[in-house]
Amino acid sequence: MNFQRGRERESLEINLIPMIDVLLVILIFMMVTTTFSQIAELQINLPTAQAEKAADKPASVNVAVDAAGRYVVNGKPYVGKAVEGLSLELKKAAGSNADPVIIISADAAATHQAVVNVMEASREAGYSRITFATQAQKN
Questions:
Q1: Which of 3, 44, 49, 92 has the highest CB neighbour count under 10 A?
Q2: How many domains is the chain built from?
Q3: pLDDT range class, residue 68, cuts 50, 70, 90
Q4: 113 burial class (0-12, 13-18, 19+ CB within 10 angstroms)?
Q5: Is 115 domain-assigned?
Q6: Residue of 103, 74, 99 lying closest to 89 (CA atoms)
């Protein structure tokens, strides 16, 4: 028997606001009670040092290479292309220094071979510390 003939049925509705409130409370509870321990982190005590800046600069030999492949060692032009002669010139420029720093200042248009010849001459002379001089780009 249907005693409620004239009344419409109310549509069922799920109210999500209380569920969201409960989830937010749970989330806040989890955030507050969670400890952020870093188990995988290594505990390392690094050593300390009391080093002063070096008073003297290391001995250096400047070798310039121009676009034509000519060499200048410490301001003195080197005539020739032989690696052996350049090696002797490097030894002469280093003098009594055992292992000077060879600074290569090569022109941007210098051939790769000319720069490699300086590196090979340094190796033959027994010098292993080689660096290249550059300049900053102008904007």
A1: 92
A2: 1
A3: confident
A4: exposed
A5: yes
A6: 74
Residues in the chain: 139
Which residue, 46, 77, 48, 54, is CA-closest to 64? 77
pLDDT tens per residue across span 20-52 = 999 999 999 988 887 666 555 545 555 566 666
User: What is the extent of the structural domain holding 118?
Assistant: 60-132
Residue with tokens 């055992």: 98
Residue 88's domain is classified under what CATH number?
A: 3.30.420.270
Convert the pLDDT of each residue in 105-130 to its tens digit: 888 888 899 999 999 999 999 998 99
From the list 94, 65, 66, 69, the residue with the least C-alpha distance to 81 is 69
Query: Computed over its alpha carbons, how large is the radius of gyration of the chain?
Result: 38
Q: Is residue 74 part of a domain?
A: yes
Average pLDDT (61-73) is 88
Is residue 73 within 8 Å of 89, Cβ to Cβ?
A: yes
